[in-house]
Amino acid sequence: MKPPITTTTAIQIQRTGGPEVLEAITVEVAAPAPGEVRIRQSAIGLNFADVYQRRGSHGPHAATQFPLVLGAQGAGVIEAVGEGVHDLQVGQSVAYFHPGAYQVLRNVPASRVLALPAGISEEVAGATLLRGLTAEYLLHRLYRVQPGDRVLVHAAAGGMGVILCQWARALGATVIGTVGSAAKQTVALAHGCHHVIDYRREDFAARTMEVTEGQGVAVVYDAVGKDVFLPSLDCLQPMGMAINYGTASGDVEAFDLQRLHAKSLIVSRPTLRTFISRPEDLRRGAATLWQAVQEGLVRLEVNHRYALADVRQAHADIEGRATMGAVVLVP
Q: Which residues are in the Enoyl reductase (ER) domain (predicted)?
């Protein structure tokens, strides 16, 4: 017997703008359709991608149709399964990656849902799945980090940075991180960085070349964008790759392609959605992530918790760079 239609709390926006556009509403949740599961969430991830979407910034989003429920990741327990779902069961702890996460109870396509293995809590998975999957493709697929590589990670104390730095070091790379304060410098050093540069006090490009004895780095992982992109090109070794996967300081604007010519540099602007568009890629990426956690190569941590009702404050804090590490919304 299918569960009846029920109501739940969701956070939606009717227009783009600041945190004030986030509104709590009551919505109906029908029985899961064929191929879906109903999840009662215990943890909803908050990522800077949510801020981009709330602002109406450029990103890997479909054309916005309002009203819109933000968020793309969460975790909880399956309450019901739709017809044709055989590999997931009621009562199972799961995480998922699918738009519309800012909602207490919701239906999600089973193809986007991941059963959680032993040792991975719902809170950790809900808060860090997007970042962990992003780190997996950045380190293992887009550029495959090898022992002996030198890598530069911008925002090394942020939610993505702490995962990238730990994992890159475990893969045998020399990790250089940039941060914006002494407190963040301590966090970066505790999460895999060999060298940390406070970009507010030093020229990070000059310091990177000094640390690498003039050789440069094989890859730059850049979640900052406009403020650091061009100087990052000066940090690369011949045939190095600059990967801009986030734009916290603004979009990277047009630049002279000849900047890449002298050292045959490579530039990429990827999005996670492409790398996990097929269910098998999502599962393979998650399996690699879970294995790294279980082997102790990567620590997934939740650093800040906000009630779902306090989502406006959570957005203001992450946008104002007042947070370090992963943030979770608790329904």
A: 17-329
